[in-house]
Structures
1.
Amino acid sequence: MTAYLNGLIDNLGLGLSTALSPTNLYYCFIGVVLGKFVGVLPGIGALVTLSLLLPITFYLHHTPAIVMLAGVYYGATYGGSVASILLNLPGTPTTAITCLEGYPMSRQGRAGVALLMTTVASFFGASVGIMLMTLFSPLIVEFSLSFGPAEYFAMMLLGLVAAASVASEAPAKGMAMVLLGILLGLVGLDVETGRARYTFGIMELYDRVPLVAVAIGLFGVAEVIYSIRTSRPGSIDRKSIIFRSMVPTRDDIRRSLFPLLRGTGIGSFFGALPGTGAVIAAFMAYAVEKKIAKDPSRFGKGAIEGIVAPEAANNSADQAAFIPTMTLGIPGNAVMALMIGALMIHGIVPGPQLMVKEPELFWGVLMSFWVGNVMLLFLSIPLIGLWIRILMIPYSLLYPTILLFVAIGTFSVNNSTVDVFIVMVLGGAGYIMRLLDFQPAHLLLGFVLGPLMEENFRRTMLLAHGDFLVFFRQPISGALMVLTISMVLYALWSSLRPMRLRRKKAV
Amino acid sequence: MLKRDYRDIIGGSLLIVIGFGTTWQAWLEYPLGTVSRMGPGMFPAGVGALLMGMGLLVIVPALFRVGPALPKPDFRALFFVLLSLAVFALTVDTFGLIPATALLTVTAVLADNKLGVIGTVVLAVGLAAIAILIFRVGLGILLEPFKWPL
């Protein structure tokens, strides 16, 4: 126990000195400002921005690269609530639920209070998430260092199945996207035999489809095409948001205290699970508050509990999502898959070894979360007028800018025109997926994990002489496989259920 | 509302086509190997088969439920957005970053056509400045502002 604590203190010191180095401070600042900026803008979220930043990380050292990308991610969640409260339009999906109480509050001239309380709740939730990551990561890593290829395969499979089926309304479509991602990840030379697969004679594809092209095509280009016709009206009463209007009443504070704690708890739990994450956590936190409220009729009319709890939940979930990503190398959502991808671009193998081999990276990134959240606290409240003005930037100016970043970013990675054409193809494909209601985010998860899964699967089969049951012989992989199978069965049952219901009705 | 969920029927059919193509290709072209020493074809063949299964799972329930109206693709946005990228890719190497940026902007603006001529020119100039400042000055990426292919 004392050894654990001493190690922890050493590591936190190392992390803090890394996070506070001028380079990392600078990129942390860039990350959170950019995150806050795109979070405020409806129609651009963390995923698009991270995709566009991915090419830039080629020019950075790995620690500042991850520090910056992470900053964009949690910064966007801070920013998203501004649009939710003022315009009734979620800036990011994670803050969608904040509209329900936040917008009524701003109609009542209490936008200032709402903005302040969401910022405080965000900061509190994020802080708890970071603390949990600090305390539990070393234990998880220690536990998982002995994992063999069978355990890895089982873990990745569980992560993908959970991501595709638990949170999704249509598990079969989610799984299909994951499989499609895995297939896309197989394009290129086979690692073991050197055989070219699915390259269609295009030389540039021999070295796999670049992650940058997949992310930018699916999220950058497809999103732009999809959003162009979505008009976003709205007017803001700017006068209601002066500094003095931000002071909450004694009643506001009293009402917020327990929702804050409950929201944080819910967020930390769902954030760490693969496949759930901040969106679900925020919805759950809101539902819980509404359920246990003494007077549920206040909800929908600007109840402060209904913004505090979800905002604490989505921010703690954002931070907790890094736990499986950084300790096990298993991303729970598309943003985390991009983080893993960024690590791999820098030649770092994600997994339990990361913390052991790259302590500076792990603890530096972790401590940068604190730094970034403090920055966001100071960026959010005094500069509120600036963020409101950003909210009014029309999309017709924004999307050509996004496309320019798409073009230059993709082109600059390999100085290759072919990469830009790959992005075009994937952008068109991503648009079709959006139209047919498939989630490209699941595809990205499969794409990142696919090659690792194949490698571990083949290695397991080689070691076990082709015996499939090997996955069930060891306790850990066996437990993971049982969990996976029960999830698949549940997903099967729930995707066939609507059919049966309808049949009954027809009779 | 439509009598069947045609959106999912189309989606599921596409999945089956892709899954079938993948497995077919792996089966014919890539050595499958044995389970204990897998060749390059085994894993993709399996994944393709699973994808076909998912396609069925998407289609079958969709046949028995009412569905939303089919989505209307925005062909104009699709066309000009993709074209703007192609224009950039084809011009950046021969004419340089600034002309490519200007062409991209003009093409992209046509996708929703809300900016007037003046707005487009201002945006193109602004974006060219941003491109030079961020990518060339800020990140040191070697992209020539102007080139002449002669």
2.
Amino acid sequence: MNSASMGLLPDGQDVPFSDIESTMAQLAREGRRRKGGPARALTATVVVVGEPDRMAEAAEALGLLSEAAGVRTILISEGQETAPSARVTAHAIGIAGLAPRFLNNAVAALRLSSLPTAVWWRGGPAEALQEIAHLADRLVIDVEDPARAWRVVGSIVDETAVTDLRWGRLTRWRSIFAHLYDLPAVRHARVRRLSLTASDPFAARLFAGWMRAMLQWSPDVAIHLVRADAPSKWPIESVQLEADGVDITVKTGSGHPCLHATIAGKETSTRIVPLGNGALKAVIGEELAVRSRDIAFERALDAALEVPAWP
Amino acid sequence: MDVSATNPLLDGLRIEPTPQPTVLVIFGASGDLTNRKLLPALYQLARGQRLPAQFRVLGVARTSWDDEAFRAHFHESLKTFAGLADPDEVSKALASDLFYVGGEMDDPALYARIASKLAEPGWPDGVLFYLAIPPTVYKQVVSRLADATLVKPRVDNGWRRVIVEKPFGTDLASARELNRALHRYLDEPQIFRIDHYLGKETVQNLLVFRFANGMFEPVWNRRYIDHVQITAAETVGVERRAAYYESAGALRDMVQNHLMQVLAHVAMEPPIRFSAENVRDRKLDVLLSIQPLQSSNGDDRTPLDVVRAQYTAGWVNGAEVPGYRQEEGVKTSSLTETFVAMRLQLDSWRWAGVPFYIRTGKRLPKRTTEIAIQFRRPPLHLFKRVSPTSISPNLLIVNVQPDEGISVRFEAKLPGTRMQLAPVMMNFRYGSAFGRAVPEAYETLLLDAMLGDPTLFARHDFVEHSWGLITPVHEAWAASGATEIPAYEAGEWGPREADQLIAADGRRWRTL
């Protein structure tokens, strides 16, 4: 397997690992000569690690992202190679089929010194995740089944700021509930039940964990997760909060990417807010820009681990 | 923790903070500022979910509109100034929260209608009045609001605030009088004097740059800094603002407010903490340390601290343009300055002997606002024998607009066997470094006013002291009896006299 066969960096140049830095410097010089203008300031290293079939999509998203922000991207697909080939452009490196036990060695050698390193984790052994986390300032977990990765989080959060990409996708949902919590009728109501309909059970658990942790719900507050009828581009389809005197229902809009909130109590009112850009590039771009520890996520994750999955 | 007292769901939320329930009452709802800036800013805040959960806008103006006409105007504004060709769900939802009351600003019945609207069920008691109207009617509107008991909240957790647009007075006496008039009805924390320069990301970043980094502040003083240049250049002429500009001029329009704020951010001492009052106290100290300005009034013995000039016909942005006196609405004998250059000396431990040069003008070659901090040259030219060209002094440039960012110029060795030196630039650009859009100044300022955070608004004493510096210059100009002022050709970097001002100190303006 090589980088080209993975669809990584189609305009790149194949080089031995030891020539990566010198070739990148040369390509950067040539690029500047062709385009003119000053060199761009680099602000971070972004490392993507994952199974080969998830790399092309990540490479495309990061390619678009690095056009907007000065970052060095390192794309590493996992395999069995101990001396893998590398493919480089002026600001990106692709390494195909690297044995997971050498992941941290490769990243240690290639990350920009003195600038933050963010790792976008798209799959791999939990042990490798733990090792690479030591080199990262920010770790973004983005795997379909994060159960193993989530269990590692507790041991690394003191050193590395961790999040899950689905947490970023829940931002608008969290925001509208935070917004609605400012309404006196909502703030002072006793909550009885939270129901979520979702296509992603982990997103649903994370959201429920967040509500439970932040509002300090007792176990009496029932949490009910329902599997969505069909797959959706949004992780959650609807959330219903039932409380004394007021019910809140928030649903994804049909057609436009919006959230429709209905607050039913003494009076019924509605809110419509944009759901934001759910494209991978937008969501990962937002997450990679964050450097600080996210205590709310950590508390939500702790609570989410206690929320039962749907039957 | 009592979760009902605060909003724990906001913890760690990146879309934060959001204000308490608010009604925004815009006086001048059919005017240019509302159309160009306020309505698009509200839409962007709605898109970013920054508006309160309960939010209404009540437009007030003389125009005979109803709610629907105001809403249609809102959609038109977004089409023209927010690039929203067709209403989307957010703009439709926001439009449904827009209401309108028409009437004359001096008519008590108008205020009775406003009071009646604000008292309707479901309308929050947090009210922000935005005076997007001519300054001549500020006093009248505020006194009418007070007469209608609209400046005091109806319930305990209600609040009332007033945003006042510039210009805040036309000289020291009028600024003091306006402050007195507002303070008759409002407490200072209720008054938000807007200066849109303070909403600009780079101006705010100056504080972060200086006080969140350990490496700059130690050299931020007279020992290492030779001088500072602040430039605010516009390519436009007076456009549709001739009536205002004729009575204002560049000194009032740009220096008294925007550039004094920028100067204060550059020169202020570190505040004890990042709170509104501490920051504003330290900014005021800067103004208090500025030596009185001396203007050329025809007496050659008077040092020239201030130069004024007016543009004549020329060529800007690829087109021929008329001179100032040929602009529509401008008197043919006008002495209004469209350019000002000045030298300020700060009597402070940090800045004694470091001149601050300020220049601003219309119809200059390019639109740019920047702060250039020029450092002293090294004490010894160690490489003189091998590299005889003089060493360029280090420069730190803060670009305020249009390309917001920070650049540092330093010397480097040119590659080769010979020891040759050349200046190089290290650039940080907001547009590319973070890959996200910088918010419009009015978005930031509207949100801060709704949140009750006055950090980015001018306090009464800053405004008065700023006028206190500027007013004597206007008085000297008026007393000079001059019938002409220096001229510069549109598309050039100001008059020869401005070059002489800085050349007298052995320095020159940066070529931008």
